[in-house]
């Protein structure tokens, strides 16, 4: 099962997502921290995306590649002067190569309080069956 998803982070800092708006060149691209665990049904991917909302999140599967892109808006109100910052300002981007064992049509996701949960179910396996053999 560990081969069902392969990280492509080495590519992500060099490219922008293929769909949607692209970030202005001055914005940093941040690698979102990810946890992946396996269940009886498939894989679950958890990503920390602080500041990302459902309106600013793009989640896409194309050609067995799962891409997560989250745009973050500045938290300080217009006209305010930033006095202290511990979060780097930028957009989140991660991508993974999925194996053919993942049921792409069954992928579901939810975003709650800046944590994205993506469920990657396994393709159902064919049940064993007896095959009738005809004779001459």
TrEMBL record:
The residues that cross the membrane are: none
Where is this chain compositionally biased, Basic and acidic residues type?
A: 1-10
A Pfam family matched in the record: HSP20
Q: Which SUPFAM superfamilies match?
A: HSP20-like chaperones (SSF49764)
Task: Report residue spans for region: Disordered.
Answer: 1-29
Q: Enumerate the InterPro entries for this protein.
A: A-crystallin/Hsp20_dom (IPR002068), HSP20-like_chaperone (IPR008978), Small_HSP (IPR031107)
In terms of CDD domains, this protein maps to: ACD_sHsps-like (cd06464)
Query: Boundaries of each SHSP domain copy?
Result: 25-136
Q: Which family does it belong to?
A: Belongs to the small heat shock protein (HSP20) family.
Return the protein name.
Answer: Spore protein SP21
Organism for this UniProt entry: Symmachiella macrocystis
Identify the taxonomic lineage of the organism of origin.
Answer: Bacteria, Pseudomonadati, Planctomycetota, Planctomycetia, Planctomycetales
* Encoding gene (name): hspA_4
